[in-house]
Amino acid sequence: MTSPASRDGLSTGRLIKLMSLLWLAGVAMRMTILAMPPVIPLVHSELHMSETQVGLLIGLPLALFAVAAVPGSLLIVRVGARNAAVLGMIIAAFAGAARSAAIDVWTLYAAAIATGFGVAIMQPGMPTLVGEWLPDRIAHGTIAYTSGMLIGALFATGLTIPFVLPLVGGSWRLDLLVWAVPALLIAPVFFILSPKTDNVSTIANKVGALWWPNFKDPLVWLLGLTFGSNNSPFFGTNAFLGDYLASQGKADLLGAALGWLNGAQIVAPLILLLLANRLQGRAWPFSLFGPVLLAAFLGLIFGHSAAVILVCAALVGFTTAITLTATLALPPLLSSPADLARTSAGMFTVSYATAIIIPTISGALWDATGRPWTAFVPLCVCAVTLTVFGTVATRYPPATGG
Question: Is the pLDDT of residue 18 over 90?
Fold first, then answer.
């Protein structure tokens, strides 16, 4: 008995399979990176790091997301999006494990850079895979892999403090090794079960030399700044929340706050699946949730009770999850198939260049003023720019032709 076909001719079984594979890839993209924030206070103490160095530790993988996005686009042209994604998974897993062997801040930075490189060469491939596998279901494909990213973040941040650290005797080094294992196991599962690329040379011939981003294209900058305004608040909050709570005498809230920050993101895909047909190219995710994100940061700055802190952390997670998916759905809608990989690469280059600058500025403000709340000021600015640029991007005319 065959699975019933959907309205676009894709069987329900195949749709579920493809969305599941995209989900797994999303998990691999976030799990290794987000294994670090819960153990930052331990790493901070052992390696004697300043707040600026903490910001740089989070920012360095994001810098690699920017630097390696263009080589990732070229790799897609040469070997196909599927193979590029698998290679990125393997590099990220091994490099994530290598962080556990750091003997000082510089060796930790080196391993963090390699981890970021692995994830970076995956990222341009995800919108490309959505376009190849689910051309008539862009919103569903995007929701699938972004929800995987959110689950990967939740696993790493929500389970580390209550479960994994006690299991490994409180060792942050063993904790990072533990999280590298499932990230590595995803790679062969994805490779074996994913559809084979029909003909890589045909794809390369079709795309031709179109792998270098066109940085003269306003769309690349509009998408990049929108995505950077989404990434910076999320990664910045994960980076500084632990030390911020400790400075307020509320270090015991860290596990719960990180759990709410990343756990609240899981609600977003469930809502977006119900609203998938109202997501593509719509302004409401930005015009509604950008201001809510700003309110959440103001709550973290001025609120002092545990309840306010947890609610605001949850709102940061929820709002950035909604706008993450809305942003990543835009490149396949606004770019032609031939331009999709390089437009995505350009978007990631701009966005993660922004996302390394913002956390570093946040940490520098804290160090310079001695006032912990100043670390959230650049993130407030990002909430405003996310609202404005995201709304403008949804008004951008889509490309024509292939």
Answer: yes
Q: Do residues 42 and 99 lie in contact, with contact meaning Cβ atoms separated by under 8 Å?
A: no
Which residue's entry shows tokens 């329900």?
12
How would you write the chain as a 3-class SS string? CCCCECCCCCEHHHHHHHHHHHHHHHHHHHHCHHHCHHHHHHHHHHHCCCHHHHHHHHHHHHHHHHHCHHHHHHHHHHHCHHHHHHHHHHHHHHHHHHHHHCCCHHHHHHHHHHHHHHHHHHCCHHHHHHHHHCCCCHHHHHHHHHHHHHHHHHHHHHHHHHHHHHHCCCCHHHHHHHHHHHHHHHHHHHHHHCCCCCCHHHHHHHHCCCCCCCCCCHHHHHHHHHHHHHHHHHHHHHHHHHHHHHHCCCHHHHHHHHHHHHHHHHHHHHHHHHCHHHCCCCCHHHHHHHHHHHHHHHHHHHCCCHHHHHHHHHHHHHHHHHHHHHHHCHHHHHCCCCCHHHHHHHHHHHHHHHHHHHHHHHHHHHHHHCCHHHHHHHHHHHHHHHHHHHHHHHCCCCCCCC
Average pLDDT over residues 226-253: 87
Q: Give yes or no for residue 80 having a pLDDT over 80.
A: yes
| pLDDT single digits (tens) 198-221 | 444 444 444 444 667 788 888 999
pLDDT, tens only, 294-333 = 999 999 999 888 899 999 999 999 999 889 888 888 888 7
Residues 384/297, Cβ–Cβ less than 8 Å: no
Q: Are 321 and 269 in contact (CB under 8 A)?
A: yes
This prediction's pTM: 0.73
Structural domains of the chain in order of their starting residue, each with its CATH number: 12-394 (1.20.1250.20)
The Cα–Cα gap between 195 and 172 comes to 37
Are 175 and 155 within 8 A, CB to CB? no
Q: Using one digit for the tens of pLDDT, what is the confidence trace for 343-369?
A: 888 888 888 788 778 888 988 898 899
Block residue for tokens 């994805």 = 190
Cα–Cα distances in angstroms (integers) from residue 197 to residues 79, 124, 136, 350, in the given order:
9, 16, 18, 29
CA distances from 126 to 80, 84, 258, 276 (A): 11, 10, 26, 18
